[in-house]
Amino acid sequence: MSVTPSGSSPHTVTGRFFAPGLDGVGVPATGFWQHGRLKVQAADQAWEAAPDARVQSGGFNAAQLALVWAGTEGECRFYVDAGASRTAFAAGLPAHLAPQHHAAGKASAKVERRFRLWWGVLGVVALLPLLALVLLLTRVDDAVGWLVKQIPHEQEAKLGDLVLAQTRAQMRVIESGPAVDAVRQIGQRLTTGSSYTYRWLVVDNAELNAFAAPGGVVVVYSGLLQAAKTPEEAAGVIAHEVAHAELRHGLQGMVKALGVRAGAAVLLGDWSGAALGQAMTGLLEMKFSREAEEAADAEGLRRLIAARINPTGMADFMDTLAKQSPGAAVPELLSTHPASEGRAVRLREAAKAHAGPWAPLPLDWATVQGSLKGVRP
Ligand SMILES: [Zn+2]
Description:
Layout: E1 13-18, E2 27-34, E3 37-42, E4 45-48, E5 54-58, E6 64-70, E7 75-80, H1 84-92, H2 98-122, H3 124-137, H4 140-150, H5 153-170, E8 173-174, H6 178-190, E9 199-203, E10 210-213, E11 217-221, H7 222-227, H8 231-246, H9 249-268, H10 274-281, H11 290-306, H12 313-324, H13 332-336, H14 343-352, H15 365-373
Parallel strand pairs: 9-11
Antiparallel strand pairs: 1-2, 1-7, 2-3, 3-4, 5-6, 6-7, 8-9, 10-11
The structure holds zinc ion (ZN).
């Protein structure tokens, strides 16, 4: 296994490459092993894996392997494509990485089994051709709404587990500390009596973003916590994300994407299961409809008021963002949650209809924000 292909006829490994300075969703890349190091070509640049690079499992379809190393500017990840590329990757792998490769293979097989089990138990796989047909004959949203109603919360929670495992594989999760405690404390107040068991995550990422995955997984980016001026501003965003989870918007989006892709797969005669993996991949970049966003605003507001948290936080946060970087790149949260003119005004008006007084959240926000400063090297 320690034999490396000669430089003149490298066995090409294709995949997707993540590195500082490149597009955040990764770029297509090719690589080959030379003297025990993976040479990578991506975005017209050449890269070389560090000598202490590690092999990990990852990818939403859970069948992917990644080579991960610390570059001079930050972490680099090469996700190896399935099939022949995976074979070429394994063939050139230096001997010392063989045990990691074996372990990663076992881990991804385990996740993949759980993944298949989830769809299998759900019966979605059997329902897909039917769903595809229904989608062709009726209104998409009606069909999706009907199917989502058939999915029990416990099954949705298992899907949340997969998203959680995925988030851990792809992002740097802050495991403990004041920021995690703050998000959990705010989140628990907003979800009293929920039928989901929530998982609260803070990831080390400078983007102003947060998202909710099916089954009660809420992920908040450290950049968002640092941009929020008060815990109430953060609570406004968390309430909105909780509302997406409670209203099952993520699940609806996935079923819709899955149905449409399954329809295409059936029409094209491709029934390899690739459609399932692709539907999962789209989750993180999912955009909700305007109706869904308005519903999440209203439900988020209702939850803030029920939790006795000052409900102007969301509107304040939008103002904070607008003031902070006029003309700069649109933060991720706003690109997936467009601040239609008057949204902040509407939120503030709706909040005004409810009398306080609101007790400030018992959080030392300076400590929370200070704890995040040292995280990023
Ligand atoms: Zn939203």
